[in-house]
Amino acid sequence: NSIMERIMEKRSAEGLPAKAIQWGAVGEVGLVADMAEDKIDMEIGGTLQQRISSCIQEMDRLMSCDAPIVASMVVAEKRAGGASKNIIEAVMNIMSIKDLKTVSMESTLADIGMDSLMAVEIKQVLERDFDLVLSPQDLRTLSFAKLLKLDEDRKKAETDRQQAEEEGFEIGMQMLLRNLGDEEHSDQTIMKLPTASDQGCPVLLIPGLEGVAGKVYGTMVEAINAPVYILQLMATLECDDVPSIVDLVIEDVCSKVFSGLKEYTIV
């Protein structure tokens, strides 16, 4: 079909007559009629059967349009709640198998009765509903035992993903709590942190966006042999820019940290 369509495109580009029609499932004749029996609403590969009368009616419109490649099919509407809960059930529905006990778990689906139309629909359903992409070779060797294993692996992967998300959320909350400041002392512009020694060149820490002395800072500086102070910005919430923040805190910084000193460190 693909080769024929490329030929039609080439003929059309050369100004020659060319038309390829992509039909969906045509009802009332052939393999589809044998499969469907009296079920005209049977869904095949996401499409319904198109009656012969409809095909003939559409033929005139398709032949008279300019495009070299056209298509006609009846797209099935998605039914609410129609999706199968698991892979096994989905494939059983496509193959019209009522009881799994009536088939061999190790036999390939082809041996059980999967034809080309069923194979296409199974491939589409697995990709659309279960995010499973199978190659043609995988599909030919597929059995219910393999489907069961795929379903178990998929559920395990989903469980692992949810668990990882929950753990990530918990870690994020822990980090957030570590960075939250001590509410009791958050109104202090300059706060001294406990260190190993108060001797040496003083260090002034500038906090991040949180603007307060979170627990993480205490852990960071507890082994430092120098006095460490941290600047808290709760008093600057009404400030609109950096210069106004500096004007508000500079007096406290100079009097409590840098008073009379020639050397100091700002981090």
From TrEMBL:
It catalyses: acetyl-CoA + n malonyl-CoA + 2n NADPH + 2n H(+) = a long-chain fatty acid + (n+1) CoA + n CO2 + 2n NADP(+). Its EC number is 2.3.1.85. One of its GO terms (biological process) is fatty acid biosynthetic process. GO terms for molecular function: fatty acid synthase activity; phosphopantetheine binding. The keyword Transferase applies. It is an enzyme of class 2 (transferase). Residues 81-156 form the Carrier domain. This is Fatty acid synthase. It comes from Culex pipiens (House mosquito). The lineage of its organism: Eukaryota, Metazoa, Ecdysozoa, Arthropoda, Hexapoda.
